[in-house]
Every structure is written in structure tokens, then in C-alpha cells.
Amino acid sequence: MAYPDGPGAAIEDGILLGSDEIGELLRAMMQSDGRVQRLELKDRTVWIKRQGGKVLPPLVAVQGFFAALFRIPVLRPSPQLSPEAMQAREVSRIRAFAAAGFPVPKIVYASATAMVMSDVGPTIDRRMREMRNADPVAHDAFLIQVAEALGRVHAAGLSHGRPHVRDFFLEDGAVGFMDFEEDPASVMPLAMAQARDVLLYFLVVTAFAVNPEATCPAALEAWLARAPEAARVELVRLTALIGRILPLARLIGRLHMGSDLRRFIMATEFLMRVPPLSVDGPKTAKAG
């Protein structure tokens, strides 16, 4: 763990902590072992994140099952690493997004297996929940805005790995990114990882949109407006591949239709119905 040189020292990302804040932060890191912990300091709110010990969500198991069964490498989850390697991977990816100009949480403090990050305010998921009934148009506009931002991420030569509105926030009106726990680009070509981003994000769009008939095509168009050509082509190929899974997914759904499986079916059906482009054709979505 990197210790500051004195009171008011900047530990990471130019953030100044007073000596009392440093002491409180160190006590919290040593006395608690929760994976994610909110901590109120004198002049700021921070989040402590410890690597390791995470229970993978059911969707990851579903991905792995279908990837192995149908030999579709793009669906393989990122490899599970040691806590030290997970920490290094996440810090590196935060730095990469920041260097590309995307808002990310600032790293206040870091050790080999834990980091302290600045509070970024409410997630887009939380903002959407607050306005779903009050302003459904604004609710769905967030889904479209994130899709456009994801296209800019891909245009910058990056991938997120697990795009979900709970992992995004707003900073001065721009979409910010956090929770870089998966890095599929480390085990597959970048364009394939970016297409995977789109598939996973549309699990969210198709399930959360108040008006999916309008919002889903609009979100796809927003991504296409920024996305690199290689990612568009790879998305077409991915959609064709995962279409092979749909009959089995529907069969499993008749026995037990969990929320993750329902989202997978909805997103796949949409992307098959509204292909983003033909591989040799125009680079625009064929909505409608």
C-alpha cells in the first residue's frame, strides 16, 4: 500500500486527504473485510473495494454453459484471477478509460488487493428507477445515451466487458464508466469483445425499456453512429452464432424462465430481427 508523505498529501489522482481522513481510511481498510464498503470521511464520500471473494452472477454461468456447449468463444466469461491480478487488471483498465477521456472514479488509495475510489454520485440505473414512472421518455433516453457512449468507447479501441446501467454514471452530462472486473479483450480479438459488449448491453435495453419498440432500434442506431466497422461486422457474426442457441434457450425457458434467460432471449431476438448491417452492405440499422 502506498502511504502518503504527510498531512494533506495527494495519494492518487491528485486527491488531497487530511491526516484525520487518512487515519480513518486506514482503520476502515484494516478493520473490515466487506467486498464493497461505503465510507463517509470528513470532506468526502469514498468507496472501498476489495478484490476476490465475489459470487459470480447467474448470467456468467449461463454464458459459460452456452459457450462450451455451442463452441462460441465470444460468450466465454473473462478468466478468474488471483486478487492481486484482479486488482492490477481493474486499475489498469480504469487508467486506460481515463486516458481516453472517459469519466471514471478517481483512485484515492490503493494496495495490492484493494482500492479506495471517489464517490461518483447516483448510477444511471438509480436515476432510471427514479423516473421510470414519472418520465418514461427520459428513462429510455438514458438507455440510448449509454449506447452512444458505448460506441465511443469502442471507437477509442476499448471494451467494457460487463456493460450495465448500474456500472455507469453521469459526470457533467457525460456517461462515466466503472466496475471493470471483466476484460474479454484479453482472451479474444477486440472487435469480438466489443460485439459481446453490445449483446450484453441489449440484455439490459430490451428488458428495461418502457417503450422497447422505439428505444431498442434507437439505441442500436446510437451505437452504430460511433462504432468502428470491425465491431459492426463482428456483431453480425455474433448474432448469427447465438441464433443457434435460441431453440435450446426457449426450450429451457419452458421449464424455468429465469430473468437472465428471458433477457438473453429478448436481446437475441431483437438483434436477429433488426440486424445492424449486412457484412457487405450499408452500415445502418434496418429498423422497422
Q: Any chance you could write out the topology, listing elements then pairs?
A:
Layout: H1 19-31, E1 36-40, E2 45-50, H2 58-70, H3 83-99, E3 107-110, E4 114-118, H4 124-131, H5 136-155, E5 168-171, E6 174-177, H6 190-208, H7 212-224, H8 229-242, H9 246-255, H10 259-273
Antiparallel strand pairs: 1-2, 2-4, 3-4, 5-6
InterPro entries: Kinase-like_dom_sf (IPR011009)
Protein name: Serine/threonine protein phosphatase
Pfam family, one: Kdo
Describe the structure.
There is one protein chain. The protein is 49% helix and 10% strand. It is an alpha+beta fold. The protein folds into two domains: 19-118, Phosphorylase Kinase, domain 1 (2-Layer Sandwich); 124-273, Transferase(Phosphotransferase), domain 1, CATH 1.10.510. A four-stranded antiparallel beta sheet has the order 1-2-4-3, sandwiched between helices. This is Serine/threonine protein phosphatase. Pfam families: Kdo (PF06293).
Output the CATH topology of the largest domain. Answer: Transferase(Phosphotransferase), domain 1
Radius of gyration over C-alpha positions, nearest whole angstrom: 20 Å
Structural class: alpha+beta
Give me the strand/helix succession. HEEHHEEHHEEHHHHH
* Form type: globular
* Strands side by side in the biggest sheet: 1-2-4-3
- The domain count comes to 2
InterPro entries: Kinase-like_dom_sf (IPR011009)
Pfam families: Kdo
Protein name: Serine/threonine protein phosphatase
Organism: Rhizobium wuzhouense
